[in-house]
Amino acid sequence: MRETILDVKNLTVSFKTYNGMVQAVRGVDFTLHKGETLAIVGESGSGKSVTTKAILGILPKNAVIDEGEIIYNGEDLTKYSEKDFYKIRGKEISLIFQDPLSALNPIMKIGKQITEALILKEKMSKQAAKKRALELMEMVGITNPEVRYEQYPFQFSGGMRQRIVIAIALASNAKIMICDEPTTALDVTIQAKILDEIRKIKEEQHLSVIFITHDLGVVANMADRICVMYAGKIVEVGTSEEIFYSPAHPYTWALLSSMPDLETKDRLFSIPGTPPNMIFPPKGDAFAERNQYALAVDFEEQPPFFKLSDTHYAATWLLHPNAPKVEMPEVLKNRIARMRERGGI
Q1: Which sign does the torsion angle of CA 272, 273, 278, 281 carry?
Q2: Which residues, in sequence order, are CB contacts of 146 under 8 Å at separation 6+?
Q3: CA gap 242, 240 in Å, rounded
Q4: pLDDT for the residue 79
Q5: Could you tell me which residues come within 8 angstroms of residue 155 by beta carbon, excluding any fewer than 6 positions away?
Q6: Which residue ranges of the chain lie beneath pLDDT 50?
Q7: How far is CA 328 from CA 16, 53, 124, 194, 344, in A?
Q8: With the CA atoms of 80, 102, 13 and 319 taken in that order, what torsion angle do they form, in degrees rounded to the nearest 10?
Q9: DSSP secondary structure string, 51-87?
C-alpha cells in the first residue's frame, strides 16, 4: 500500500460576506500518496482552489475553516499559525499559480525572483543561489538561461513565464507541488509542453502533485487518481481509468460529455443551468436541479458514497440497490467506445 503524504478529513470552509456565509467547501475528504498525481476537477466555483489554499494557509481574511483536519507529517495544518506555515510553504509544499503574469513581480528580474526563494528558504549564498537558479531554468526548458536570468517578466512569452513559475516552485525541493489551473491561459500547443514538463519534473524529483483544473482532458494522461468536485463536495473519486471509462455520477457524465471531440460532428454538449447559490446550499444533492436523471430523493437528502471498487466511489442515489436502472448518455457511451478502440484516453 502506498504511503500517504497528505490526508484531508471533513474539510469545511466558509466565507463571510455582506449577504451571508458562503459555504465554499463542505466536508471534503481525500488522501494524497507519495509520488502520486491527484487531480481535482470541477467547474469554476466548485471549491477546488479554496481547498488547496486551505492546505497552504493562504485563505483570504474573510474565510473560516469551520471544521476538519489537514494532516501533513503527522500534524494538523488547520491549527498552524502564519509562522508555522512559513516553515513549509514554498519549502515543502509549493504552488504553481494559474496566471504567471500576476504571480511574478513585473519590476523584478526573473533571476532575482528565483534566487529570492533559495536565499530565504534554503539559506543559500547569492552565488550558490544563482547557480541553482540557472540549473532550474535549464531544467524547465528555458534556453540561454544566463541571458534570460537578467530579463523581466514582460520579455517572456506566456508559456515561458509559466516555466519560470514552475522553476520558482521547484526552488526549494518541495515534497508536494500544487498546480492550480497552470495551463488555463495558454494555447493548446504550449499547454501540452507545460504538462509534459510538469510530468517529467514530477518523476525526476519524486514529487506528489495535486492538479486543479476544470478540464478533464488536461489531466487525462497525467493523473493517477481523479476527484470530481461540485458545489463544495467531492461527488466521485477513482483512478484515472475508472473515471474516464466507468464514470458513475451524472455530473462526471456531464463533464466528460462536454469535452470537445474531433472524431464526431455531434453538437458540443453543455451542462444546463448554473451551480447553486452556496449561501443557501440545496437540501439534497446539489446537482439535482441540473441533473436530468435526478430522483425525488435527490431533492430531499444528500447521497452517501457508494463503493464501486476499492478505489472507485460515487455519491449518487442512482447507485442505490432500489434505484431505477439508468445508463450513461449515448454520446458518452460512444466516446468511451472510441477511446477503447484507439487504446487510450
Answers
A1: negative
A2: 134
A3: 6
A4: 96
A5: none
A6: none
A7: 39, 34, 56, 33, 20
A8: -120
A9: HHHHHHT---TTEEEEEEEEEETTEEGGG--HHHHHH
- Could you give the 3-state DSSP secondary structure of residue 293? coil
**205 in Cβ contact with 173 (< 8 Å):** yes
Please give the Cα distance from 272 to 329 (Å, whole number). 15
Cell numbers that stand for 219 in this block: 489531466
- pLDDT of amino acid 55: 97
Q: In the structure grid, which three cell numbers stand for residue 250, read together? A: 451524472
- Please give the Cα distance from 328 to 269 (Å, whole number): 14
Torsion of CA 194, 196, 198, 204, to 10 degrees: -150
Residue 218 near residue 267 (C-beta atoms within 8 A): no
Q: Supply the pLDDT for residue 236.
A: 98
| Residue position matching grid coordinates 492546505 | 55
DSSP E strand boundaries for the chain: 4-17, 20-33, 37-41, 63-72, 75-76, 93-96, 176-180, 208-213, 225-230, 233-239, 306-307, 313-314
The predicted pLDDT at position 20 comes to: 95
What pLDDT does residue 1 have? Answer: 63
Q: How deeply is 310 buried, as exposed, middle or buried, from its count of CB atoms within 10 A (0-12, 13-18, 19+)?
A: exposed
Q: Report how far residue 231's alpha carbon sits from residue 219's, in angstroms, rounded to the nearest whole number.
A: 21
Tally of residues, the chain: 345
3-state secondary structure of 114: helix
Helices (H) and strands (E) in the chain, counts: 12, 12
- Tens digits of per-residue pLDDT, 225-274? 999 999 999 999 999 999 999 999 999 999 998 887 767 777 778 889 99
> How is the chain split among helix, strand and coil, in percent rounded to 5?
35, 25, 40
- For 228, 230, 293, the CA distances from 250, given in Å and listed in that order, are 11, 11, 7
Q: Cα(45)–Cα(189) distance, rounded to whole angstroms?
A: 27
If we measure between CA atoms, which residue out of 216, 213, 266, 211 comes closest to residue 244? 216
